[in-house]
Automatic annotation (TrEMBL):
Protein name (record): MPN domain-containing protein
Keywords: Hydrolase, Metal-binding, Metalloprotease, Protease, Zinc
NCBIfam families in alphabetical order: PRK00024.1, radc
Taxonomic lineage: Bacteria, Pseudomonadati, Atribacterota, Candidatus Phoenicimicrobiia, Candidatus Pheonicimicrobiales
Family indicated by similarity: Belongs to the UPF0758 family.
Organism of provenance: Candidatus Sediminicultor quintus
Pfam family, one: RadC
Amino acid sequence: MEKKNYTVKDWPDEERPRERLLKYGVEYLTDTELLGIILFNGYQGKTSVDIAKELLIENGKSLRKLDSLSYTEMSSVKGIGLAKFAQIKAALEIGKRLLRETNSPKKKIHNALDLVNYYGPCMRDLKKEKFKVIMLDVKNKIIKDIDISVGSLTESIVHPREALKEIIKESAASVIFLHNHPSGESNPSKNDMDITERLAGACELVGVKVLDHIILGEDNYFSFAQEGLLKKAGTDLVSALKGVGNT
């Protein structure tokens, strides 16, 4: 007798992920079942839930790890093609945007944790360093944030004049610098210390307060302000202002 290739449709109703979601609610489904629903269908001999289970096992049962995978990495699991890769990435991005919307600092910034909760979901798992300048008004409300640089796996290249162009343009009263460490370790390097001092000195010369520099790790963060490490730079940093306002 020829062996039949079963699909999710052959499962009893009470075991099918979509039917369980509709009957009991989304919170009662496992990560594997939710991912199986997103994948929608499998291939000969494997259901979407089977593919989801293999994908999670291969990546330490971590949705965050999935979020950081490239297409080449994810497609190493049989059954994952461009369409399914796009479906997974879109679903994970929606989750991050929902979390960011939930944690949006609509009122003034009170502490480093406000920004960690807001920017962390989108930055902490990046494979390259991204350096942001967050500009605030006199009430410590965010005016705008911009990416000053996206660096290599080990460091970002940040020029004070590039940051100051935007800060002056937006008439910011104060700023907070923020970047991630792809290594997952949030402690500052010597390069981080030097950049912070240079930026703080340059901002001081144009009358803009630097409230903090936050480094995002995997599940932790480092705040220069909380650690008392924000220092005034020397007057030799006047040279950092060269080019400000030029295009």
